[in-house]
TrEMBL record:
It comes from Cardamine amara subsp. amara. It catalyses: a phosphate monoester + H2O = an alcohol + phosphate. GO terms for molecular function: acid phosphatase activity; metal ion binding. This is Purple acid phosphatase. Keywords: Glycoprotein, Hydrolase, Iron, Metal-binding, Signal, Zinc. Residues 382-440 form the Purple acid phosphatase C-terminal domain. It comes from the Eukaryota. Residues 54-145 form the Purple acid phosphatase N-terminal domain.
Length: 467
């Protein structure tokens, strides 16, 4: 700690005096003692009033290019009209409402039976347009809205929020509402681990319901691009629940077929100037497996003239200098990292570790069992790896780092927060990280990212923004 601080002060001094950029990593002096992350009780999120009122409303992109939206909600009963979404352009008088029926299912988990889970895919929407949508019947009608993204193109600005490992504690609430107070966020990249229902006796499925109600004020109005984490597996042999990802797959639909994927656990979308690939840390990825073959084909489809920004979402980080979950992403890194470097992936967002970390652009792909060359080296074709598992869930902060800070680690801090990725054009994106203790406008870590395809120059973080 102390040493790192001294190194930080020293490098800042050098930076200022002789204008030499020092690439020593920073361990934030803001490290705090472990905070309790107290769960918001079930009663905090009662179902909405009204007979068979739709609840747990959330949306996600419903096709590959951004003209579709999947609307998901839950009703206690499955009656006439409860599975229909009506929608219309906000800018119209609403006399021409269209409607789409949902596919409906429910599931059992141990002693729990879910409500009716509805998922409706709206297609053929206009780009860059605000729509209202309506769910429910009679006096239980509820109305929401969303804005479709602009047409895909290389210089289309777009702002993503980035959240991981959210859970449903008072800290989670702070993370979500801090993000919502930022008027720029248009869609959320979610790095896995949603409700943490599995941290409760028999994976208390009511916690999936309360989670759905908790995120609704955000997730009903802007798409969350979901990746699955270990807390989505819900595998519990001792209570006879042996179908991995059962609750998650029932509750959170994604447009995986639009990217020729055979599983909702890995898929891709294009949105504005970004191509987003979602991977599953907890599905097979070795050579010859479905995820591996899919990714191999998928990377060939990315057209940087159309979508300059290539972004990957995965749960377990590949570069993590926290003692928690240390090296859990290692075998996937070994499998896929050469492809990421070859294809010049811009950013990899991961969760899992309940803290924040940003890497240098490094790769470790030289490994050869004969010569044993296996260490990260600076590589301007490599992604920046960002661990954003700091959403604030019930398991608390991961506040123990390896010491000394390895050279691949640029900035690390054990605080809860979220990030904003503000893509400006094909060459520049402004990335900022916001800790919960500060108001949203305060930036705790930031960097101007340069696109790996159009401007593969080395970036330097602005040291002055770090407190
Ligand atoms: C969640 O945060 C919002 C915004 O600060 C606040 O109004 C609300 O009361 C919080 N909810 C709980 C349960 O603390
Ligand atoms: C890539 O996208 C550009 C811009 O939309 C287009 O002109 C070009 O034909 C595309 N290339 C391929 C191989 O599809
Ligand atoms: C592995 O390293 C050894 C020793 O440097 C070298 O002779 C060999 O060609 C390398 N193998 C591969 C496949 O690169
Ligand atoms: C791209 O955005 C950056 C940052 O706003 C700006 O400095 C640069 O001039 C822009 N490039 C073009 C071609 O407009
Ligand atoms: Fe996790």
């Amino acid at each position: 700690m102390r040493l790192n601080r001294l190194a930080f002060v020293f490098s800042t001094a050098v930076l200022l005096s002789i204008f030499v950029v020092i690439h020593g990593g920073v361990t934030s002096s803001y490290v705090r003692v472990a905070e309790p992350s107290e769960e918001m009780p079930l009663e905090t999120f009662p179902p909405p009033a009204g007979l068979n009122a739709p609840e747990q409303v959330h949306i996600t992109q419903g096709d590959h290019a951004g003209r579709g939206m999947i609307i998901s909600w839950v009703t206690p009963l499955n009656v006439e009209g409860s599975n229909v979404v009506k929608y219309w352009i906000a800018d119209s008088d609403g006399s021409e409402k269209k409607s789409v029926p949902a596919s409906t299912s429910s599931y059992r988990y141990y002693d729990y039976t879910s409500g009716y889970l509805h998922h409706a895919t709206i297609k053929g929407l206009k780009y860059d347009t605000k729509y209202f949508y309506q769910l429910g019947t009679g006096r239980s009608i509820r109305q929401f809205f969303f804005v479709t993204p602009p047409k895909v193109g290389p210089d289309v600005p777009y702002t993503f929020g980035v959240i991981g490992d959210l859970g449903q504690t008072y800290a989670s609430n702070q993370t979500l509402y801090n993000y919502m107070s930022n008027p720029k966020g248009q869609a959320v990249l979610f790095a896995g681990d949603l409700s943490y229902a599995d941290d409760h006796p028999n994976h208390d499925q009511r916690k999936w319901d309360s989670y759905g109600r908790f995120v609704e004020p955000c997730a009903a109005y802007q798409p969350f691009i979901w990746a699955a984490g270990n807390h989505e597996i819900d595998y519990a042999q001792s209570i006879g629940e042996t179908q991995p990802f059962k609750p998650y797959k029932h509750r959170y639909h994604v447009p995986y077929r639009a990217s020729k994927s055979t599983s909702p656990l890995w898929y891709s979308i294009k949105r504005a100037s970004a191509y987003i690939i979602v991977l599953s840390s907890y599905s097979a990825y070795d050579k010859y497996t479905p995820q591996n073959s899919w990714l191999e084909d998928e990377l060939k489809k990315v057209n940087r003239s159309e979508t300059p920004w290539l972004i990957v979402l995965v749960h377990a980080p590949w570069y993590n200098s926290n003692n928690y979950h240390y090296m859990e992403g290692e075998s996937m890194r070994v499998t896929f990292e050469p492809w990421f470097v070859q294809n010049k992936v811009d950013i990899v967002f991961a969760g899992h570790v309940h803290a924040y970390e940003r890497s240098e652009r490094v790769s470790n792909i030289k490994y050869n069992i004969t010569d044993g060359m296996s260490y990260p080296v600076k590589d301007q074709s490599a992604p920046v790896y960002i661990t954003i598992g700091d959403g604030g869930n019930i398991e608390g902060i991961a506040n123990s780092y390896t010491d000394p800070q390895p050279s691949y680690s640029a900035y690390r801090e054990a605080s809860f927060g979220h990030a904003i990725l503000d893509i400006k054009n094909r060459t520049h994106a402004h990335y900022t990280w916001h800790r919960n203790q500060d108001n949203e406008p305060v930036i705790a870590d930031s960097i101007w990212l340069k696109n790996r395809f159009y401007l593969p120059e080395e970036e330097t973080a602005s040291v002055d923004s770090r407190v």
